Amino acid sequence: MGELIELSSGSGELSVGIDRASGSLVRLSSAALEWEALAPAGAPGPSTCCCRWASTASTGRAGPVNPAPRWSSTRPGPLMRFLRPDALLMTAVTGFDDRNMINQCLLYRYIISYEPYNFKGRLTDMPLTVAYGRQMDAMRTELRDWLWDGEFQDTIGARVTDRSSGEMHAPFSVFKSPRDGSLAVVVANYSTEDRVVDVLVNERAGGRYRLVERDEWLDAANGVRLPARSAAVVFGPPDGRLHPAAETGSGTTAHHSP
Length: 258
Description:
The protein folds into 2 domains: 4-142, no CATH class; 151-254, Immunoglobulin-like (Sandwich), CATH 2.60.40. Helices cover 17% and strands 29% of the residues. The radius of gyration is 18 Å and the shape is globular. By secondary structure, the chain is α+β, with helices and mostly antiparallel strands. The strands form 5 sheets. The chain has a 6-stranded antiparallel β-sheet, covered by helices on one side. The protein has helices spanning 30-38, 79-83, 99-108, 127-142, 144-147; strands at residues 4-9, 15-19, 25-27, 46-47, 54-55, 65-67, 88-93, 111-114, 151-152, 158-162, 172-176, 183-189, 195-201, 208-211, 218-219, 224-226, 230-235, 246-247, 253-254. Helix 3 (99-108) packs parallel to helix 4.
């Protein structure tokens, strides 16, 4: 953890600060020690800004954090994100294996507020949720040019259909890079069954995708395979712009560094 700047003091021993190096809000109390016991060195810390256990991993922004709607409907609606496109919106994640709420945070760029036992528990009470949330935040940090800093497009620029039924799939969202206008599509599978979907980006098929729980990029030409309660980020076929899923001659991937 880098140099800390104290922002405000809460009740008792709680205090909130910002890590100058990463720009992440951190909790300056025994809570931070508990997070460090769970996470490897260098992992983003929790915050007590408007909540008890909020992961503000690499948002890169300072400012007030606002509550976002909490539900895992497949059609939650993008109104809040459209109204406040750059706001730090936070949503409570209360389940002990609450993967779909983590997926919703990815879909709509919400900060995760870990709240086991409805604001009465501790991070160690929900290890499955925290583990999946950390994987999602790590991917979102790696792809921050789209998923943190990009312009939210709702579903504009992409089309996602279920391969078995041919019907439109929901939910999914689109983010546009401020660097070059390239699009990243986030597709979630809220169901308890595996799904295969076809994704068109700017009406073009193909491209590559990556699941939250896997580091490698996969070919999307034969469909995006979504395990139950999972999510993926999809990039369209190469169009001259470098993005993280661009293939190199060795078959590996070239990563776009912010």
